[in-house]
Amino acid sequence: MADTFDAAVIGGGPGGYVCAIRCAQLGKKTALVENRELGGTCLNRGCIPTKALLHTAELYDEIKRHGKELGLNGDISLDFGALAERKDRIIEKLRRGIEALVKGRKITLIRETAELTGPKSFRAGTAEYAADNMVIASGSGPAAIPVPGAGRPEVLNSDAVLALKSLPGSAVIIGGGVIGVEFATLFASFGRKVTVIEMLPRILNGMDEDICEAMTRLLKKRGVAVHTGARVLEIAGGGVCSFEEGGVRKEAAGSIVVMAVGRRPLTKNLGLEKTGIALERGFIAVDEGLRTSVNGIYAIGDVTGKVQLAHVASAQGLTAAANIAGKNAKMAYAVIPACVYTNPEIASAGMTEAQVAAAGLPYRKGNFPAAANGRSMIMNCPEGFVKILSHKHTGEILGAHIMAPRATDMIGEIAAAMRSEAVIEELADTIHAHPTVNEMIMEAAHDAEGLCCHKL
Ligand code: NAD
User: Fold this and answer.
1) Fewest CB within 10 A of the end CB: N or C in the chain?
2) Ligand 1 pocket, 205 CB below 6 A?
3) 31, 8 in Cβ contact below 8 A?
């Protein structure tokens, strides 16, 4: 054996590297095995590059639409090359930060592809290692649908879109989930023609219905063609997508076609069969403590198929590390903020109104429009609202759904309130700073009590 570890983490994304750091903090001799860049999909091909591009898109769009009234005269133009370089610099800087953290914690970083060789051993490159505990954090990759033409060069997955060096003239996006809608926002903000083709009756399926409807309306208002209940039939040359909507065959063309139809777990070539680790629908099956079916082997992040979000992967990493250190920690999935970086942003936590109604819970609904919030007006973003659902009798906060500027920052307050079992009255009684977008949370809480001062 080349070396022996208390814990070996396979995969250096936001699940894996956080898990490795926590294992080291808890006194474990730890290895982190990664065959690409540290930071995983989130940092290198996901959250960070997307949001870096979207930040410029938001500025561009605001100045284009409102420059004159903002008192900013003169025309602006996009230098996409400079933007792409900035995005890469941000990634590089954050990556170096993770490398420093890993090194600073005396974690052995093995830059190889790992393969399990048994329940307590793995191979990385040509060397064989022993580990008392192993954590699989191998992540996920973009999925594709097997329609004719899916292999054409103009068909790009999210990895390829984020590596573009120039902005495409137009885009057809297959899939109206989080990735599809964020890319639609990006291209449309830069004035490009965008078509979204979604199989289900609504985009952003799983989000609260009011949010889905409001965002669909807004995208359409900004010129995005949104087709729901639509089935892609084939992709021909020139990015021409044929699809069927309501029994009618239609066509949409784009200089690129973005495939954004979900992500599949990366479980191949990991040697899972050598240990007999059980899978469930292709994902690695885990219990609440992230334990797989094999003693001493844990799995975290997208490969578990629980909730494919970076912050959930990190939380799972901390839970797995605690258990490796002998605790009995469990993941709680009830309060997870979900964010979509549209313009304005979307964020939610807890149950949707449909879920509350289906559960037969008596509830109150508090609503406050962004149009009545001073800060939103200053930010030129009157579209949107805060909606909070609370239990009619106990005041328990059941769910919150926000479409507003900086919604993704606002949702933290709700998540903290729900996690600490605060009731709606406590949100209402909390003095919120003025003028802020967060005031909308307080106003919506007042509205739930029928006592909102800034709404008739
Ligand atoms: P998704 O599951 O959110 O959406 C995929 C969409 O594609 C679904 O609406 C689905 O109905 C649709 N679809 C599937 N097959 C189709 C077909 N043949 N024709 C048309 N539509 C079809 O997946 P995603 O948007 O690819 O994102 C993948 C994961 O990454 C998600 O779990 C998401 O939460 C995560 N992610 C999160 C963020 C964020 O937190 N802001 C951003 C990007 C991605």
Assistant:
1) C
2) yes
3) yes
List all residues 6 or more positions away from 153 whose beta carbon is below 8 Å from its beta carbon. Answer: none
pTM of the predicted model, to two decimals? 0.97
Query: Of ligand 1's atoms, which has the minimum distance to the CA of residue 263?
Result: 28
CA of 300 to the centre of ligand 1 (A): 20
CA nearest neighbour of 174 among 145, 151, 211: 145
CA of 387 to the centre of ligand 1 (A): 24
Ligand 1 atom with the smallest distance to the CA of 143 is 26
**Could you please report the per-residue DSSP string of 338-365?**
EEE--SSEEEEEE--HHHHHHTT--EEE
172 CB within 6 A, ligand 1 = no
pLDDT in the model for residue 295: 97
Q: Nearest CA to 171 among 156, 153, 151?
A: 156
Domain architecture of the chain: domains with CATH: 3-46+83-142+264-324 (3.50.50.60), 155-261 (3.50.50.60), 338-448 (3.30.390.30)
Ligand 1 contacts CB of residue 260 (under 6 A)? yes
**Active site (catalytic) residues:** 434
Can you give the pLDDT at residue 1? 83
- Residue-wise pLDDT for 55-76, tens only, equals 999 999 999 999 999 999 988 9
**Which segments in the chain show pLDDT lower than 70?**
none
